[in-house]
Structure prediction request, 404 residues.
Amino acid sequence: LPMADSPKRVLVINAGSSSIKFCLYDMENEFPLTRGIVERIGLDDPRLSYTIKDATSATEPVAVKDHRDALRVIAQHIDRPELSPPAGHRAVDAVGHRVVHGGEKFSQPVLIDEDVKRAIREYFPLAPLHNPVNYRGIEACQELFPDVPHAAVFDTAFHQTIPPEAYTYAMPVELCERHRIRKYGFHGTSHRYVTLEAARILKTSLDQLNLITCHLGNGCSITAVRSGKSVDTSIGFTPLEGLVMGTRSGDIDPAIVLFLMRHEKMTVDDVDELLNKKSGLLALSGSTNDMRDILEAASSGDTRAALAVEVFVHRARKYVGAFAAGLGRLDALIFTAGIGENSSPIREAVCAELEILGIQLDSERNQANETFVNTDSSSVKVMVIPTDEEVMIARDTLSVIENS
Ligand code: AMP
Prediction:
């Protein structure tokens, strides 16, 4: 089939360990023609859930044993008659892949070629849970859509502007160089999306904009943005550093690891699982990593849940304060992702003690989840901006193709 004048339909693929999310955009108007997820890949009862044109939605059992099968299911789904493209056009013109780790090599999205694939493989040790599945997704997708360009959009790319004093750990230099140990930062696509949105909403040019962006979801990170660029972020060498997350501890004294290995005879894998999967809100609450449930429990008198919320908020506030000090001037504090977008009590608690920074929350606007939740006299804007990593990846894919 002939290529459309410019690629119009971009398929975004976000491959995780046991699920693959997808979204097919008509980039003429950034309309999601269909979006969905194949879940429980390699487990019992895998299923496909989808919506078509934001109207119909369904969940179906699918026969899927690996990521390749899952992508085949997605390709078949896209082939439905109700999604067929206008005559003479392709069902998919380009594919954009979310790749978690781009190391120091990628500060921009790129067209995927053999060199890019080699680099993604090189970074397997840096993101053992993510890069291998992202890579498998790319390979399988290239087989399914062999005649269209594929782009990689990296979670780390936005943070490549962080300066050495912020990304360097105080450890032997030679050792860090050998293993590429440094802060990389994650959720970059989300931080960048809300940064661009803030510039648009505030009608300010990016290079005039100093922000602190709080991505508070199941994974959490806070980024300092100076003149539109990331200059520091809470997450580090791996996604474990920084804020309290759903199941990750965030910052702890690193000596705790040594202590546990010595006194609990924990292995490397034990500590890995403890800090990545069994800590954070899950550990503090004792039952769940879901902030909604924790807030509900806290308000009905559960003291563990209440402490979980306080620890979460205290850590977030500490990073906002630290980053504000580093930025000098702060134009806006942005909240995004599941907790940041939806939880007025968490936003209120984070902002409560930040009046010293000129941050003043308006209770009513905050409870109504308005875009601006600051008081009129607040010198810093406080904004709620829903993130959209998928559309960012689709836009990047398009711009990579147009510039290549
Ligand atoms: P995400 O990873 O961005 O999907 O965010 C997931 C997190 O957002 C979970 O901890 C949810 O409990 C939380 N979340 C979603 N909606 C709300 C809400 N209305 N209030 C509090 N937390 C919420």
